[in-house]
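Researcher: We're teaching a course module on how sequence relates to structure. For the next exercise, students receive a sequence and then see the predicted structure as tokens, so they can try to spot secondary structure elements on their own. Here is the exercise chain.
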Amino acid sequence: MLSSFINCYSGWHALDEEEQTAGFAAASPSSDANQPAAADASNPSATPVLAPSTMALFAASFDNSACSSVSSDGSSGNIANIIVAEKAVPSSPSLSQMDKTFVSSDESSQGDEEAGDVVGPVDEKADSRRRIIMFAKGCVIVLLIGIILIIVSVGKQMPKNKPKNQSFFDVPVTLEPSSSPSGTPSISPTTTNFPTLQPSSSPSTFPSAAPFVLFTYGESLYTDNNLGIQISVGLTAIQIAQSGSSVRYDNGGRSSRSYHGMMDGAGIAQLPDGGYAYLSNAEEPDGNGGVYGLYFNKDGQITDYKALLTGTSRNCGGGMSPWNTWISCEEYKNGQCWQVEPNPDSPNHNLPKATLLGGLSGGEYETVAVDNTNKSKPIFFTTEDQSNGELRRFEADGNDWDALHVGGRTTYLEFLDGNRFQWTTSLSAGENSAASYYPNAEGIICHNSTLYFVAKVTRTLFILDLNDMTYTSELTGSSWVGQGSFNSQPDQIIESDLDKRKYIYFTEDGGSAPGVHVRDREGKYYTMVRGVPGGRYSGDETVGIAFSPDRKKFYFGFQDAGVLMEVTRYDGHVFN
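Model: And here is the predicted structure for the students to work with:
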């Protein structure tokens, strides 16, 4: 239809120019303004034209293929052959004075041949108005079609996922790609070889922090020759203490006491001021053992170091109580388990006391775990490092400092056929079960009614379901992933994020490259950090594993070398 409109306009314009070139002249005006101009008698074919003041009105009716005019008698012809003229009128004519003349060149030719005359003036007001309206409608239709085509074309270029509350005019539309890329990116990228260990002085625009990324321990190890270790890529370590040397504080001062020797099991106690204490056993014999506290402020900087328990022997492992005290176990014939208060503001600070966990005769105790499901009666589990060392279960009365010193009941673990177990009051039954199934029990933890502990000599991890009284077991390091190895005896264990990743961390006693290893919920093992094989820590024992309260710092040491290290992630995030 658009092409029809163009053809109509072209024909109309061509006719207008042709008639003007032919020299149409105004008819001699009659003295009567109401009479039409007469045709020239000498030229019968000449068509009367309007004076310059006359208004030409054109109308056309459109079909789907051509532009045509319709005369009063129903005949049609090309618009190039149609002229609608209005009589010249005075300067201020009224509508009643206006008259129209319709002359067809086709009809004029016919008149020349048959009558030799020209068609006279015809009153065609109604017909002219009809044609004007039809012409206007045609123009409107063509205009609307053009607008629709433009909208459809632009709509195809619009983004499909327009944000909510965004208008059409808020979306930039480009019909064709630009010929060259923009000079600068919309957001400036940042590049770095490693994430910074310290936060930047001003916040970044986006994102506000490095994204947290889960990584697999031991997937790749790199060697730190200064520390003599191999550590998982993504982690870094520093040495923060050395046995026999004073401890350097963050303010530049140093401790008056040298860091203790033969460090062993450790725990973390959070303090009321937001800081925390790293509580470390000393496995020295003959009354030279004890517990020592390395104190940190809320930013993880060392502020103090002091003795919390002295005069004991071979303090090996231990565990934290639900009320944030440290329980330190002596590993010798008549050893006991001692409760230590690390909070300087507590009335029990500097007043360590032997608990009821070891019984009256004592024993070679290792580690303590607690099930605090029933807070009025927490249950403590204690391992003993002997070939027939029973696993003890103590149900306390109360949930505070005194709960470990008054009352309570003790039973012992006994394994049964069909991977079942029970708690028995018979000490001998417990000792026999230990000799047959779990000799030299060491590290132990409890989480969500599940008890985990290791038997060092057989290198076995036991997993007890405390609800249905069944158990399973596996060899430590039996399913290995990545670099490293876990070939020597497991010792202490701790848990971290057992609700999600279900990680258990193990220390290792002996071997050419003792390390810290991790077990995931699928039963796969990885190396987190270890000594360089055959290096300075060959034959040593990893000890003292613990996390800071925010789990952004991890602590471990080598017992014989007397080295305590602090491990963090490169990106500064919490450990998995």
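Model: If you want an answer key for the exercise: The radius of gyration is 50 Å. The chain has a mean pLDDT of 78.
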